[in-house]
Amino acid sequence: MQLDEYQQQAVEFYKGQVIVIAGAGSGKTKCATERIARLIERGETPESILAFTFTNAAADEMKKRLSAKLGDEMVARLNIGTMHSQLNKILRANIQFWRPDMHKYEIMDEYGCRKLVQEAQKACGLPEDSIVNIANGMKAVSFVKNEAVSVEEVKDGVVDGLLKQLGVIDWFVDFFETYEAMRRQKKLVGFDDMLWDTYFMLREKVNILNTYAEKFKFLLVDEFQDTNKVQFELVKMLQSKHKNLFTVGDPRQSIYKFRGADVTLSLEFKKHFPGSHTIELLNNYRSVSNIVELSNDLISNANYPFQPTKFTRPEGKIEFVGSFQTDNEEAESITEEIKALYVDGVKYNDIIILTRTNAQSRPFEEKFVKNKIPYRSLDGTFYESANVKDMLCFLKLIVGDNFEAFKRVYNKPNRYLGKVFFEEFSRRYAPGKNIVQILMQGGFPKNFMNKGAATFAAELKLLRSACAMLSPGKAIEMIRKMLQYDEWLTKNEMDASSRIEILNELQSSAMEYPSIKEYLEFVELIIAAQQSKEDYDAVRIMTVHRSKGLEAPVVFVAGVCEGVLPHGRAEDVQEERRICYVAVTRAIDRLYVSYFLERFKKELAPSRFINEMMLEQRVGRPLLGELEVAA
User: Fold this and answer.
1) SS3 of 179, please?
2) What's the whole-model pTM score?
3) Preceding omega of 314 cis (within 30 degrees of 0)
4) Which residue, 291, 213, 225, 293, is CA-closest to 257?
5) Is the predicted pLDDT of residue 101 greater than 50, yes or no?
6) Which of 567, 540, 536 is nearest to 554 (CA)?
7) What's the CA gap between 23 and 255, in Å, rounded?
8) DSSP string, 219-272
9) H/E stretch holding 295
10) For residues 555 and 352, is the Cβ–Cβ distance under 8 A?
11) What's the pLDDT at 616?
């Protein structure tokens, strides 16, 4: 396919600084790869080009396209990858000249970071409570590093206002200094550190910065709208010598604020780079005309200074819009529509269901299993999420002795029962033996283990007695309250609120089943439906965030109601509008929008975005009553 006039302008841009506003479906990836190929055709060396992608998959796709055009040997000489992977190479190659004691550092995963936060809090003599805990420590550390703030700047009060908002101002300063000292002593570099350490290394060692700023004559940054502060500062530093910066993105599709992304960095590009250029890719080659117009109407409410995208395809269908009392009713109706589409010749693989949160996948998974519709949950099946697994294991232990269930939850919440305890328990256990009796016998290597075992035994006895005649939903409610499970999550998980929402969804749905045993049997059917690793024709269920960069002929956007989309915990309605915009622009031929009016026994209203998309005018009827296929 030939380049259009807007794409051609971007590809031919040679030297200077530019932001390419790549509207949905405008051929962003093609534009970026063609521009790199054009630089090579102009005689620039591959080694002088550095390209940052948002994901490893995007880097692989870019390399694949360039290989077809330039050959594998040439592409191997290019510097293409995520910012973390490319900057980690720079850090590892030079850290001995900045911090010799960190030479040959080890990469620290999330578990390692969690453990280090806990050790630093303990070293500072901080007692664990609702404020001083692992979750808040990890959140604050990540926030400070994404903002490119140093230990000394933290001590000087540079981010005091934001630390107050996080509720950690009273203890964070000393803790952070201790955390960093321990990290350095242990020679550890975490995910955020790959950028944070590199930033301060380049800032403090100008000779190292000059080496790379000289080497990389051309810098390309994909998905620029989702850049955070430390990434932005690194980009500025690396392009400081030649000032040949080519950024591609769309502020209308910036949806990663929760990871520190700052959309104003792209909106104010000209302010940061005086004399820079702006090129807009206006043609949408993906969606049919009325879907393009709908998305333009929606995002126009954000008042961004960009031209609306133009459609290049004839009109399609926006044909499945309406309200339901509950998410179960919504899922039931969508299931029936999918069955009809399949009969009409639409492949399951051509259908995507988009939700705002992971928890919303639950009713669809249940309906699909009951109706034998193959599906893939790209964010992981609802019932395979960690905390849902915990609840299912507690239910299994209520029904009877189950060694595998015990193995998962014997130390959840924390009873200080670790590997040594479990090895001794395993030695005593055999099929047919009573788990509660083994726990109550005591005789474990340490007294605190005996205490923890006795506590768990008492909890299990009480749960088995109290939950025997309860519905699985009521049993889950009792487990959460008795074990203070939600409080434990809040202290230990950065995304505790999302996890608790998933547990609320589980608890609510489990109320419908008469017995724990029947419920567990049904869940096993759902889990089994996802076991196949083969690529097969299946409906895809995913969150809007997971759908970024994807498209499908048929897209269902479910749960477009106040409290869901926009989300009830959202502080930035503009970001929620952008999330909705990303959702509807995934659709190629058909777009389905629906909402429900009740969740977790709370009344909900249709989302404000329903009106902004002018759906009533487009379907020619009020959005009330049962969901119907528009004529």
Assistant:
1) helix
2) 0.87
3) no
4) 225
5) yes
6) 540
7) 14
8) EEESSGGG--HHHHHHHHHHTTTT--EEEEE-GGG---GGGT--THHHHTHHHH
9) helix 289-299
10) yes
11) 80
Q: Look at the alpha carbons of 122, 124, 127, 128 in this order and tell me if their dihedral is positive or negative.
A: negative
Distances (CA, A) of 244 to 20, 44, 216: 14, 12, 9
Q: Looking at the predicted structure, is the pLDDT value of residue 238 above 60?
A: yes
Q: What is the pLDDT of residues 171-187, one digit of tens each?
A: 999 999 999 999 999 99
Buried b or exposed e, range 479-499, using 16+ CB within 10 angstroms: bbeebebbebbbbbbbebebb
Instruction: Give the pair of three-digit tokens for residue 443.
Output: 């005789």
Q: Which of 165, 552, 499 is nearest to 351 (CA)?
A: 552
Q: Check pLDDT > 60 for residue 626.
A: no
Q: 328-367: per-residue pLDDT in tens?
A: 999 999 999 999 999 999 999 999 999 999 999 999 999 9
Q: What is the pLDDT of residues 178-215, one digit of tens each?
A: 999 999 999 999 999 999 999 999 999 999 999 999 99
Q: Which helix (H) or strand (E) holds 79?
A: strand 79-82
DSSP 382-424: GGGSHHHHHHHHHHHHHHS--HHHHHHHTTSS--S--HHHHHH
In the predicted model, is pLDDT for residue 322 greater than 80? Answer: no
Kindly state the percentage of the chain with pLDDT values over 90. 77
Mean pLDDT of the region 213-230: 96
- Listed in sequence order, the residues at least 6 apart from 377 whose beta carbon sits closer than 8 Å to its beta carbon are 361, 365, 530, 541, 542
Closest C-alpha to 227, from 205, 245, 207: 245
Strand partners, 555: 352, 591
Rounded to an integer, what is the distance from CA 488 to the centroid of its chain? 22
Helix (H, G, I), strand (E, B) or coil at 167: coil
In the numeric block, the tokens 């693989």 are attached to 349
